[in-house]
Amino acid sequence: MVSFTALVATALALVPSAVSAPSGVEYSSTHNSLATRQNAPWQWWTEGSGQFSCQQQGGGKYSCSWNGQQGGGMVAGTGWGAGRKTVRYQGQYNPKGPGYLSLYGWTRNPLIEYYIIESWDVLAPGEPWTLRSNFTSGSANYAFYTAQRVNKPSIEGTRTFTQYFSVRSEAEKKVGDVSGTINTADHFDAWSRAGYRLGNFEQNMFFVTEAFANGTKLPSGTSTITVS
Ligand SMILES: *[C@@H]1O[C@H](CO)[C@@H](O)[C@H](O)[C@H]1NC(C)=O
Ligand SMILES: *[C@@H]1O[C@H](CO)[C@@H](O)[C@H](O)[C@H]1NC(C)=O
């Protein structure tokens, strides 16, 4: 068990994205508030029933396996200070059912939850998505969607807020061996051009494996991802 104080100290030391965490660390932060989880350099949260197992392996690497039952879900991945940054990831991602491989974070004023979704098996949003624009970042093509969440958990407690989603084009999406470079500034600027600005980055952003049950669609799979 890594103490939360140690996690925060590690998070503050990250410049800008390399993660030097002890290897083989496995712990649950399920009991922590969302705001607390967003300050850590490693996110590991589950809900509902199913088997979820994730390990942080040091150097920004993590691995997960999951088999969710009805109502079950998880989010796990590597975090670092949020903002305009270039993030590289590579590894294996083998999902079945709903979930994403994505960069994810929050801003305040306005309160926004944002995602840059690189891969998935089943895209099954909890709320309807509205297409706002299409844009490119380097040679990658994305669609930009927004959704409204009403009275849902946020870093400020239960609130109503907007979610922003960049979603890699279906044709470019890969499963199995995955790798890529995300320039977050390209996304933030594209969202702003479409009329959707972000607020202040106050906490970490994460490159996560997220999996969740949506009705009868259950998630299972494995991932091993290194973020740098
Ligand atoms: C499940 O996904 C569908 C779209 O595939 C969506 O309309 C529905 O709201 C989702 N339900 C939940 C509980 O997430
Ligand atoms: C924008 O992205 C959506 C979703 O991938 C796609 O259906 C649509 O054709 C795209 N539009 C353009 C102009 O590329």
From TrEMBL:
It is an enzyme of class 3 (hydrolase). One of its GO terms (biological process) is xylan catabolic process. Pathway: Glycan degradation; xylan degradation. Keywords: Carbohydrate metabolism, Glycosidase, Hydrolase, Polysaccharide degradation, Signal, Xylan degradation. The active site is at residues 113, 210. Its EC number is 3.2.1.8. The keyword Hydrolase applies. Residues 1-20 form the signal peptide. It catalyses: Endohydrolysis of (1->4)-beta-D-xylosidic linkages in xylans. Belongs to the glycosyl hydrolase 11 (cellulase G) family. This is Endo-1,4-beta-xylanase.
